[in-house]
């Protein structure tokens, strides 16, 4: 929809243009999600891989990763 924020979490090469081609898409963030709509989805295994090889997330992305880890831990605790 027009003027509705929706963000893709991507891995990009530092030499690439800002809006250029991404290396890998890791997930998404929908700040306006309501009800049962999914607000945040991040592939944490791939995030760990990229952080392990030297990727540097922005401050906002670090916060989203922390939120995803808390959500995954809470889901694992209720499933056990």
3D structure, described in words:
- With 80 residues, the chain is an alpha+beta fold.
- Helices cover 38% and strands 18% of the residues.
- The chain is built from two helices and three strands, in the order βββαα.
- The protein has a three-stranded antiparallel sheet with strand order 1-2-3, with helices on one face.
- It is flat.
- The model has no long low-confidence stretch (mean pLDDT 91).
What key attributes describe this structure?
alpha+beta, 80 residues, three-stranded antiparallel beta sheet, 2 helices, 3 strands, single chain
Topology overview:
Blueprint: E1 7-11, E2 24-29, E3 40-42, H1 44-52, H2 59-79
Antiparallel strand pairs: 1-2, 2-3
Radius of gyration: 14 Å
- In whole angstroms, the N-to-C terminal distance is 39 Å
Q: Please tell me what the overall shape is.
A: flat
Number of strands: 3
Structural class by sheet pairing and helices: alpha+beta
Total count of helical runs of at least 4 residues: 2
How much strand?
15-25%
Residue runs with pLDDT of under 50 for 5 or more positions: none
| Helix and strand element order | EEEHH
Strands side by side in the biggest sheet: 1-2-3
Helical proportion? 25-40%
- How can the largest sheet be summarized? 3 strands, antiparallel
């Amino acid at each position: 929809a027009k003027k509705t924020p929706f963000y893709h979490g991507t891995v990009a090469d530092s030499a690439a243009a800002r809006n250029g081609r991404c290396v890998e898409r890791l997930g998404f963030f929908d700040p306006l999600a309501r009800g049962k709509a999914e607000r945040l989805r991040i592939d944490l295994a791939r995030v760990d891989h990229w952080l392990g090889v030297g990727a540097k997330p922005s401050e906002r992305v670090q916060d989203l990763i922390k939120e995803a880890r808390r959500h995954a831990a809470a889901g694992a605790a209720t499933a056990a």
